[in-house]
Amino acid sequence: MGFEVFDLITEIYDYQKNKPIRLLDKVSLKANPGEIMAIIGAIGSGKSTFIQHLNGLKKADNGLILIHNESYPNQSREWLKKVGIVQQFSQKQLFLTTVADEIAFAAKNFEITYDLNHLCALVDLDTTLLARHPRTLSGGQMRKVAIASVLAAQPEILILDEPFAGLDWQAQTELTQALNKLAANGMTIALVTHDLNFVYEHCQKVVVFSDGKIIAEKTPKQLFTEDTNWQELGIEATPLLQTNFVTFDEQAVKKWLISGEVDNETY
Hints:
Helix 3 runs parallel beside helix 5 (139-151). The protein contains ten helices and nine strands. The radius of gyration is 19 Å and the shape is globular. The protein starts with a strand and ends in an 8-residue tail after the last helix. By secondary structure, it is an alpha/beta fold.
């Protein structure tokens, strides 16, 4: 199950300037089942605002969101069940006293039968942690608990805001494996990220936001091989990106992604 967005417009009123400001300006896109879609752009470009519309946390002034070709009333139980969201500071989503209770909360709320062992397996979370207090876990473990708790509601679309922020390499690797497994099973995943390694290696589509608008929608290969103005996108250019290479050397890209080194002779 994927989703489509048509001409989303959201405004706030700037009392200092005495005029409305558009946070989202005619945003339209489509995400397909089993697809991992990256949403990138500068800080304040509208990325987080956009994803909060996808499950009704924010309501657009105009436009339409379709989940598998159906629209739902804002913040209805049906909508919230179909679209799960994991916020950037996911530890703030954790408020119960054990990992088991935390993971099961959404399932109980929606009166859904759940299997804790299965939910832990989906995100590669050690079941020996189920009796622990969530606040005693590492950052990576808490992120997994937050995702598992969202998955307990059996959503068909998973939205994540900066899922790799603050995680060490091992935790990022484990989370990447979990997301790829979910996508392979048909889940649509959309995530805001500044991790271009993940974007290149694991995403099928990249959407670029700027000033509340989508200014590009491409495959990672297109984005990395074209003469992309990374500074304009609000993204810090690595040495490889600064080369603005014309011919695509996949092995050189993978070498940079793994080691951070660039073969100057190649470019």
